[in-house]
Amino acid sequence: MSAKKILMITGDFTEDYETMVPFQTLLAVGHKVHAVCPGKKAGESVATSIHDFEGDQTYSEKRGHNFTLNATFAEIDVADYDALVIPGGRAPEYLRLDKDVIAAVRHFFEAGKPVAAICHGAQLLAAARVIEGRTVSAYPACRPEVELAGGTYAEIAIDGAVTDGNLVTAPAWPAHPAWLSQFMTALAA
């Protein structure tokens, strides 16, 4: 597979594993990945949170690492990228309020480029109105947003992923092997 240029849109309190693991994995297999956050510059960092499944009614949340951004959102041109990655965590709930982020997400769908979203990343997809008629997995608490945006919620195992056209989604970080494998297949197509 030839190297691709991939954009990752993230923000403060992004889920640690859902940011660092795909970022490092995609770099390790030879892709170029630019991690950006609106309002922050290359070299600055976002705080991450660790979401864990410990038997409670929902995930627990703990402070994670600082994740260093390697590009500046205000300086990128989405047309220069071959694919998009949207990690979950808390970041999508406020990133979906940024009109430039919404426009960036829409670009990838309008151009038919591969998009990988995990967990709460579905909140950003729903706000961008790009999942109507699509089958989408997400953290179960995001099911209403998927359905209100006209998508079909894929109720799959926590370690599963689903591909619908150019979109690869998964419920949470335990799905990394399936989610990243399906995304890399989409990148190779």
Low-pLDDT runs of 5+ residues are: none
> How many strands?
11
Largest beta-sheet details: 6 strands, mixed
Strand order of the largest sheet: 3-1-6-7-11-10
What's the quaternary structure here?
single chain
Shape: globular
Strand composition percent: 25-35%
Integer average pLDDT = 96
Strand and helix order: EEHEEEEHHEHEHEEEH
Helix vs. strand class: alpha/beta
Radius of gyration: 15 Å
Alpha carbon gap, first and last residue = 9 Å
The helix content is 25-40%
SS element count, helices: 6
Walk me through this protein's architecture.
By secondary structure, this protein is of the alpha/beta class. The N and C termini lie close together (9 Å). It is 30% helix and 25% strand. It has helices at 16-28, 91-95, 99-110, 121-127, 143-148, 176-188; strands at 5-9, 14-15, 32-36, 45-52, 60-68, 83-86, 115-118, 135-136, 152-153, 162-164, 167-170. The mean pLDDT is 96.
Brief characterization of the structure:
The chain has helices spanning 16-28, 91-95, 99-110, 121-127, 143-148, 176-188; strands spanning 5-9, 14-15, 32-36, 45-52, 60-68, 83-86, 115-118, 135-136, 152-153, 162-164, 167-170. By secondary structure, the protein is an alpha/beta fold.
